[in-house]
Automatic annotation (TrEMBL):
Source species, domain of life: Eukaryota
PROSITE patterns from the UniProt entry: DCUN1
Entry GO MF terms: cullin family protein binding; ubiquitin conjugating enzyme binding; ubiquitin-like protein binding
Organism ancestry: Eukaryota, Fungi, Dikarya, Ascomycota, Pezizomycotina
GO cellular component labels: ubiquitin ligase complex
One BP term from GO: protein neddylation
Domain DCUN1: 53-261
Protein name: Defective in cullin neddylation protein
Keywords, alphabetical: Ubl conjugation pathway
Length: 261
């Protein structure tokens, strides 16, 4: 290995541990990413070097978790999904679980299709359980630190958690998912400050207004509002010009409420 600093050697080791790639490959991608480990790993998994997991190996893994091979040969049900997630060290009550669901295009909570399973893991080059575990670990680290990734998973969660035949999300389910996404303990983003308990206020406010079902626009715009409030909790950005952004959120168009809180 060419001479690298101690910090660079640690970054190469971290890259190798997460991707199972060779040292030379790790160094190549890290140099291209200016030694940003997360960017280098993302670039690796999106490249031919990191993609192209074995279809036969993935099919074999998928088949081993099917609940009803005869009745549902191309699907993994709730029991199989729970066992699979446990085997790749993903907890059911962490945002990473939803990240895996988004990656594999799960049609509903606790279900995987063969097509989504194969396409998702092939795209990351993960065709063994250890590689999938590594990818899940990388996902766990990336979600709270990459806004675009966080937003993609957050938005995918709305249809994922919606009751069959319903257009909106039940308030109780939405509140449960908000507590997951907007607290760091479960791998989400902190939506509170020492002076402002934003998440608690938001849920309490909706509870006082009757726990009405949450529509898609409200769900998506709340994540935008969360980031804006984190940038400036004094609401210096709030004006008539930006108010239209939250037009689907009548709660946030209540100027008296905004000023008082």
């Amino acid at each position: 290995m060419p001479p690298y600093s101690s910090a660079q050697k640690q970054q190469i080791m971290q890259f190798v541990n997460l991707t199972q790639a060779k040292d030379a490959v790790a160094a190549k991608f890290l140099k291209a990413a200016r030694w940003n480990v997360e960017e280098a790993i993302d670039a690796y998994f999106q490249s031919p070097s990191g993609a192209g997991g074995s279809t036969s190996a993935l099919n074999k893994i998928f088949d081993s978790y099917r609940d009803s091979p005869t009745d549902n040969p191309d699907g993994i049900g709730i029991e199989g999904a729970m066992k699979y997630l446990a085997d790749i060290q993903v907890e059911l009550d962490e945002v990473t679980c939803l990240g895996i669901a988004e990656l594999l295009k799960s049609p509903s909570m606790g279900e995987f299709t063969r097509e989504g399973f194969l396409n998702g893991w092939r795209a990351t080059g993960s065709d063994t359980l250890p590689k999938m575990t590594t990818q899940a670990s990388h996902l766990r680290t990336s979600i709270p630190n990459q806004p675009d990734l966080f937003r993609r998973i957050y938005r995918y969660t709305f249809p994922l958690c919606r009751m069959q035949g319903q257009r909106n999300l039940q308030f109780e389910i939405a509140a449960e998912q908000w507590r997951l996404f907007f607290t760091p303990d479960s791998g989400g983003v902190q939506w509170s400050t020492p002076t402002t308990p934003w998440l608690d206020w938001w849920i309490e406010f909706l509870e006082e207004r009757g726990k009405r079902p949450v529509n898609k626009d409200l769900w998506e715009q709340l994540e935008v509002f969360m980031r804006k409030s984190r940038e400036d909790e004094a609401f210096g950005w709030w004006s008539a010009d930006v108010k239209h952004i939250f037009i689907s959120m009548p709660e946030l168009n209540d100027d008296e409420y905004v000023r008082s809180n």
